[in-house]
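tool_call: predict_structure(chain=1)
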Amino acid sequence: MSTPDVLRMGRISYLNVLPIYHPLEAGILPHDFELVSGPPALLNEMMSRGELHVSSCSCFEYARRPERYYLVNDLSIGSRGPVMSVLLLSRLPVEQLGGHEILISGESHTSVALLRLLLRDRYRLDVRFSTGPVTPALRSATPPTAFLAIGDEALRLRNHPDYPYRLDLAEAWREWTGLPFIFGLWVVSREAAEQGLFSSDPGALLRQGRDWGLAHMDVILDLTGLGCPLSREELRTYYRDGLVYSLGGEELRGLELFYKKLATAGMIPAAPPLRFFSM
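tool_result:
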C-alpha cells in the first residue's frame, strides 16, 4: 500500500450507521478521511483489495481474512434481540421451508451466513438458495417462496402482505444462544497501520461519532425520517432497542460463538483470533 493522498473510510449505505457517521459527514467532528459509501459486500471487497484504510465491515469478512485487519475497539453493529432490519420473510412457516428455495441478497455476507446456520443447525432444514435482488423478484411472475431482506429494504418490506411469516435473524440467534449477534465490525487495514499512515486513532473518531449520534437522537430521527417507512417512534425503538453499537464482553462472546459455529459448519477454515488496533 503506497502512501495515499487521502485516507479513505468506508461507510455502509444503511440507516443503521447514521448515528455514527452523521457527525463526521456534517463536519461536527473534523477529520481527514474521505468517506466512501456502499453496501456491506462492496466495502468488504474494497477493504480486502486495499482500497480503503478503515471501514465498517461484515464480521464474516473479518473471519475470512483476519490477517489483513485489526478490529476497532468497542464498536459494532449488532443486536441483543429483534433487529428489525435482517429478516427472513416467507409465504410458509419457517418449519415448512424444507425443500424450498430461498432468495438471498448478495449485499451482506454475514446475514446470509447466519441464515444458513439457523436453518441448518437450529431448524434442521435442507433448503436451496439463489442469489439476486429482492425487490424485482417480488414483482416478477414467479416471486420467491421466501427471501432474506436486509437493511433499509427489510424495513420497507417487513409487513409485506404476501409474506405473513417473519423470522428476525438476530432474535432467532438470541433465542438459540442467549447472546447478542454482531453483524458488523469496524476494521483498520493492518498494512496501513504498520506503515504508520494514521496520525490519530480512527477508532476514537468513530466512537466519538457514535457517542454524539446517540446523545443527539432527535437530530438523527429528523434526518432518518425523510422517506423512511418507519414512524418516528418506530425509528426511535429501532435505534434504541433494536441496535447495539458497542463491543463489550457479552457482544464479544456472541461474536466468538458465531465464529466457532461457522468453523464447525465448514463456512470458514477456523475461528479467527480477535486482534484490536492501537496507536
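agent: Strands lie at 7-12, 33-38, 54-58, 69-79, 86-90, 101-104, 128-131, 146-150, 165-168, 181-189. Proceeding to next step.
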